[in-house]
Design brief:
With about 300 residues, the chain is an alpha/beta fold. The chain is built from 8 helices and 14 strands. Helices cover about 40% and strands about 20% of the residues.
């Protein structure tokens, strides 16, 4: 079990914290927030439940106290409003991400970025922290992929864990569902009895709009991303070398520009190291390139401010 810090203890940070504790990932959990009393209150509340999760300590801390942690989760920033795109959050959250990144210069652990727009902010944190790209990982389309598997499993009356399908690109409106390679039980999804290719556009739209629908009803999305983040940290810190659709800054060799976006990558204690460019249909390749341009344009916007 690891020592983990969470920066930002709002809806998302609190859900990440409880998910980490229930999963037994952290032996020591440090919480930081600009509103110190919020971090203190969350730490007290979580500590009072210690009889019901694997042994771990929880306390409020500063970012400076997190220098010796195994991993830091960045969940600080403003959440989305109803019908507000993730990229619309950029102006408010880029400065916060840059400030946190600068405070992590020389840090030796893993950095997981959750705050939206996660792809752009993963690049901002990596640049401001001066860390290797494989050690600054955005949760990216892990959540979108989970939503896709849930929706496809519902269509076929299968457990989502039996569906192997991926969302790549931006964690946002330009994300790309890779229908051409989607499978269940070793068989192409499009060959399954009862699967309707005519439903694919509607399912992709459901996945793309999931956050909007949740925010419109309860004001934020937090539980699923908390579970996603806890799973990502568990698999990385245990060295399981799982292939996950996480976001990290890529080099120009992939032909997508020097931006962070989600592609399948092998994750482990060193971060997201081996990136795998999946087989794609020509239309999917074109859509992925367009998604990369969306992220690049957003980066250019904040760099020109």
């Amino acid at each position: 079990m690891a020592k983990i810090g969470i920066i930002g203890t709002g809806w998302v940070g609190a859900s990440v914290a409880i998910s980490l504790l229930h999963a037994g990932v952290a032996r020591e959990l440090l919480l930081a927030d600009r509103r110190q009393e919020i971090a203190e209150g969350e730490a007290m509340d979580l500590a009072h439940g210690s009889s019901f999760y694997p042994a771990a300590s929880v306390r409020a801390a500063s970012i400076a106290d997190m220098r010796d942690t195994d991993a830091v989760v960045i969940a600080a920033g403003r959440g989305g409003r109803p019908e507000e795109t993730r990229l619309a959050l950029l102006r408010d959250n880029a400065g916060t991400a840059r400030e946190i990144g600068e405070s992590l210069r020389g840090y030796r652990g893993l950095v997981v970025v959750v705050t939206n727009p996660v792809d752009v902010l993963t690049t901002v944190v990596r640049e401001s922290a001066g860390l290797p790209p494989e050690r600054v990982i955005g949760t990216g389309t892990m959540l979108d992929t989970a939503r896709l598997r849930h929706a496809a499993g519902r269509e076929l009356r299968l457990d989502p864990r039996s569906v192997h399908a991926q969302v790549v690109g931006e964690h946002g409106d330009s994300e790309v569902v890779l229908w051409s390679s989607a499978q269940a039980g070793g068989r192409a999804l499009r060959e399954w009895p009862g699967w309707s290719a005519a439903r694919e556009a509607a399912i992709a739209q459901e996945v793309r709009r999931a956050a909007y629908e949740i925010v419109a009803r309860k004001g934020a999305t937090n539980h699923a991303i908390g579970l996603v983040t806890a799973a990502l940290l568990r698999w990385m810190l245990r060295g399981e070398r799982r292939v996950l659709t996480v976001s990290r800054v890529h080099d120009a060799s992939l032909g997508l520009g020097d931006v962070a976006l989600s592609l399948p990558a092998v994750v482990g204690p060193e971060g997201a190291t081996q990136v795998v460019l999946p087989a794609m249909a020509p239309a999917e390749e074109k859509a992925l390139a367009a998604s990369a341009r969306v992220i690049a344009n957003a980066l250019a916007e904040i760099r020109n401010q």
